[in-house]
Amino acid sequence: MEGLSDPQVWSGLIFLSSLLLLGMPHGAVDHDLYYHPRRPSNLQLLAFCSIYLAIAGFLVALWWFLPVLSAWGLIFLTWYHWGEGDWTFEKQNGGEGNPVKFPFAVWRGALPMMVPALGNPELYVEVMEAAIRIVGHEPGGAFRWLVTQQAWWSLILGLVILFSFHGLALRRANLSSHQLRRYGLEDLFLILLFVSLPPLASIGLYFSFWHSRRHIITVARKLGGDYLNEEKKVAWLHFYKRAAPFSIGGILMIVIVYLLAQSLQWDLTSLISAYLIILWALTWPHAIICKKKLI
Predict the structure, then answer these.
(1) N or C: which end of the chain has fewer CB within 10 A?
(2) What distance in Å separates the CA atoms of residue 135 and residue 103, rounded to the nearest whole number?
(3) Distance (Å, rounded) from C-alpha 19 to C-alpha 278?
(4) pLDDT digits 0-9 by tens, 135-156
């Protein structure tokens, strides 16, 4: 993405804004979630940070040596984690107690991962290829495949199949017409978002204001106490205070990867690539903790 056009610049800035909004902070209270219902001691916190960083460091190294495999892994890991996040939100914190099934997670995770590749395939491919090139590798044809006509139709067919399983599972869940209508409107909104905007813009907005916001609500209701205000809603000031140290730590990891790859040369595309690498590295321990503590 050399010579960024204006839409690429503003879409990239939208994606990077999740560093300071809800995207990076949303997983920065994993220490409280892991040790709930008690607060971790200083020794426990040190052990938690050591293991968390060890996992993340290993995965950064894996991207450095096997970036193509890791890039595909990022897509499917995010598919799983974001879909599971929506599923967990509906099961535990949707306010309706509805018995949604796992196909709901598969479908919802597919939307931010598959639909942007249909709406803007070239930009989708360029973003992933840049994250591979930043560590000195060439992506080859792995992601170019996404812009071919055959792949485009394969993605559509895959979405149709996933939607069919999703719809069948919703019908078997005996949901009310109001719930079914809400899910349908949400699906339509998300599809329009991912088709109409560049991938970095649509995924950045989704990451902050859909996935991360829902995750924070889920976690706050799980943890209770100071995470909720008197109206039993998220106490945002307390959340940001608890998330600040690990949010700053995550941002520093991005800066380190960026500097190692770019040698102090400013480049927006490379900064986004470094962010993707750290998201790959941090999502693994984050997803494991969510699976253990929220499902």
Answers:
(1) C
(2) 36
(3) 11
(4) 888 888 878 888 887 788 888 8
Q: How far apart are CA 235 and CA 74, in angstroms?
A: 31
Phi-psi region of 266 (alpha: psi -120 to 50; beta: other; left: phi over 0): beta
> Which amino acid does the sequence have at 268?
L
Residue 148 confidence (pLDDT):
84
| Res 2: pLDDT | 47
By three-state DSSP, how is residue 15 classified?
A: helix
- Answer for the pair 116, 52: CB distance below 8 angstroms, yes or no: no
Which of 212, 278, 18, 11 is CA-nearest to residue 120?
11
Q: What is the pTM of this model?
A: 0.91
The dihedral sign for the CA sequence 284, 286, 289, 291: negative
List alpha helices for the chain, DSSP H: 6-17, 30-35, 42-65, 67-92, 102-119, 121-133, 149-172, 177-196, 199-206, 213-223, 236-262, 268-293
Pick 248 or 176 by higher pLDDT.
Answer: 248
CB 69 within 8 A of CB 271: no
